[in-house]
Design goal:
With about 90 residues, the protein is of the alpha+beta class. It folds into 2 domains: about 35 residues; about 45 residues. The chain is elongated, with a radius of gyration of 22 Å. The N and C termini lie far apart (about 50 Å).
Length: about 90
């Protein structure tokens, strides 16, 4: 059978011998990975991503932060202990 003739499914076709395997894949792999991805996305959307410059600590000047605010992607740099907006990409 050539690859272009193989059936493509949106989800596993849980046949007689596959149901336990499919259930194991969903429980042990898919749910764990999707929870972690959703957790990371939640952090990005609520707290942003901080990029720490080599040799700096998390709260040191010179670090960068990416946040999403009202649909806009905002790049901030830590200057004198405060986050200062350097660049904004409009999402509107």
């Amino acid at each position: 059978m050539s690859i272009d003739k193989m059936p493509v499914f949106k989800s596993f076709p849980a046949g007689k011998g596959q149901s336990r395997l499919v259930q194991w894949i969903e429980n042990k792999i898919y749910r764990i990975i999707s929870r972690r991805i959703n957790w990371l996305l939640d952090r990005v959307l609520s707290e942003g991503i901080v990029i720490i410059v080599d040799g700096n600590g998390p709260e040191d000047d010179g670090n960068w932060r990416l946040i999403v605010d009202s649909g806009n992607l905002i790049f901030e740099k830590r200057i004198s202990g405060e986050w200062v907006t350097v660049w904004t990409i409009s999402g509107q």
